[in-house]
Fold this protein.
Amino acid sequence: MAKGREFKVGLFAVLMLGSLYIGFNYLRGLDVFSPLNTYYVTYTNISGLSKGDRVILNGLNVGTVLERKFSTEDYNEILVTLAIDNTIKMKEGTVARLAKPDILGALEVQLILNPDGARILENGDFLGGEMDRGIAEMITEEGLTAANSLNSVVKKINDVLEPFASRADTIALAIDNFKHFSDSLVYMASTFNSGMEQINLRIEYVTDSVVAAMGGIKPLLDEYTALGEKLNAIDLESRLLRMDSVLLGTQEFMSKLNSNEGTLGKLMTNDSLYNSLNSSMTDLDSLFIDLRENPKRYVHFSIFGRKNRPPADKKKK
């Protein structure tokens, strides 16, 4: 009974360790269920490369670091074992570069493929080893030079500022004047902003007035548009032709009227008709006077007949 319990505890521990390994590698982006090939690479210095660090190809995690150990008795070479996805076909001449992407980041092995290789590498082959100079190494190597250069720059700055130490009061006065000038500029800027606000308000008022005026003009424009449409609908050309013909006829009529041709022309230019009419009117007037004074000469009624009457005498002049 105790052995069965120990077996169950051991099996549970193995399952938990396997789950922890699978989960850890899954979180690191490595598929533990895909078949892996083992490759080897040698470095003279791995700069703190640890087990489980990533193997990167073009930014994609394709493997992990399995083992690191010295490969010689002089401890001058380190053999690193890499587990890489077997779907990645690498040719001879592929380089495993040891790099550090940033100062705070962990080390990683970057694969640099050689497309012109003679053959495809197989499980257990060696890759070329290469180290990338990281930012930390560059700071370490150039730190002393930078410090010396900084000391030199500080000394030069002290030499430049030393003459100004004796003129501190003048410099302070100049700074005060500059501050006063800057305050004046600020006041002028605020005044200018206030003036611009007033101008903007006036422009807005004028704009609103123009918009209101345009709103009043719009109905008038609509009426003019309607009037123009009506005028366009009228056949002005034919009407002008008629007016032209009427004017021509009137001109001909006035020309004939001013000439001796026709009745009206002769009436206006010849006084004989006027004299004849005047004489006729005089005779007619005399006839009416005689008719009024002697009606029996012109109207006679008799049962037994009538007597012939002599005609009335002409009116004495």
Remarks:
- The chain has a mean pLDDT of 77.
- Residues 167-234 form one domain.
- The chain has four domains: 1-33, 35-132, 135-165, 167-234.
